[in-house]
Design brief:
Layout: H1 2-19, E1 24-26, H2 27-33, H3 40-45, E2 49-53, E3 56-59, H4 68-76, E4 87-88, H5 90-96, E5 107-111, E6 125-129, E7 137-139, E8 144-146, H6 148-158, H7 163-175, H8 181-186, H9 191-204
Helix pairs in contact: 1-2, 5-6, 6-7, 7-9
Amino acid sequence: MFWAQSHRESSQRLFEIAEKQQGFFTTKQAKAAGFAENTHPYHVQVRNWIREHRGIYRLALFPTADRPDLVLWALWSRQRNEEVEGVYSHHTALSLYDLSDLNPAKLQMTVPTDFRRNSDIPSILVLHYADLPESDIQTAQGFRFTRPLLTILDLIEAGTVERNFMRQALRQSVDRGLITRQQIRKARMSGPARKVVEEVLRRVA
């Protein structure tokens, strides 16, 4: 009886963790919830858990979200203390604001300049290195992504998307209130980026 109660309590703790991450959790989080590491293969075998990547699992009965991949690779970017370091940016962030019909095969993620991994970077990820202030980051359920203005400026600087497309995305952002003129005035940007932004602002004035 004690074991059954302990298991229920551990399961509840794990669910509370996974619920904030669209059903996903890490090995360390499972251990913190009360599941000894030597029991993890059993829970995978009996289909309580699904192993999604090394050290990352998902509750089998948890409803699948629209973009489970975003949570999975955010957890991949975590530090030893389990803090997620990756922030979705560039094309990926733009699509999250419904400002783009582009659907690149790879996910764009910005990580700190001191980010290191001993293993290979997953082929689905394209990493950019920058130390982002929290003010430039938006939080969703289980992952983070750059705010609209930084997203657009990053893409203008990268030069990987046609300028006309970026003008359209910027114009839509201003029209929808995702970006304010005050934010634009305060933003640090290069000469070419400033030129694109000011041109759009003149047209929506």
